[in-house]
Amino acid sequence: MTGDRSDPPTYLVAGGSRVDAGKTTFSAGLVAHLAERAGDAVGVKPRAGNDYWFDHDDYRVATDAGRLYGKDARTLAAANTRPLAAPDDASPSASAVTPESINPVHRLWKPTPGRTGMLGDADRTFLCDRVTTDAGTRFVVNGAAAEAGLLPDGLTDRLPLAEATRVRDVPEFNEVMAAAHLPAIERLADRVARTPVPVVVESYADVAGTLPRDGPVAPDAVAVVDPGRARIYAGDRYAKARAVAAGSPREGTREEHVDAVTEMIEPLATEPLPALSGEVRGDPDRVAAAYEPAYATLVDAVEN
Fold it and tell me: Does pTM surpass 0.85?
């Protein structure tokens, strides 16, 4: 976790492809596997996102309650057997495990065929972010999308956006992210570092890691998940390769992507992952049983 071998381990789960790599299923099962071994385990997803169109049922489930989170954070929160360490070192209550508590930054997208969004994504536009701050929940709205009439009907009724921060271009958004998003991620990293049980950190899309490279948490072992396989890496070598990738011409100052990291290092092992039915994927204990060989190899990368 922090480089001290006496600390509970931290496992990073990253995806070899941008979507549908199976990270959340793998992460939830890993939490169950670690809890069986250690008594408790926690999973977090620092950043997440979903789509108003493609994930509409999940959007409605969350926004029916005036909240914004996705299926991945909900699944991972349900797998946790205890909360993270509290921000103020108080004893956390079991009710503290919510999707927002393990996922401080969530982004809502919308398909916009033929249109490139503010963030440079072709055919999709970000609508708003939910950020869990030390003072509560903060929403950030894409003002340019709102002015273009791209916000879905009813969104402002479902979420408390009247007082939300509005950004209209990337420089303005960067300022808000520096003031809100980054501190939210840093607070999560601090809580992960102080949590006295094994922690699983699930990354976002094909991003190599969503906790700060120079923060208090370093992965002890890494699983890069693709459909049908998990590649297992030593945490220290993965972290060093990520630091190198951060300075490469391709990556520049942007977030590092998994392929830029893994092309520099060899995995310790590659484990097959069987295809699972929806019923099995919905039960972390059954996932843990199905993926047990991969989890055993991942844990061995730390213990041996």
Answer: yes
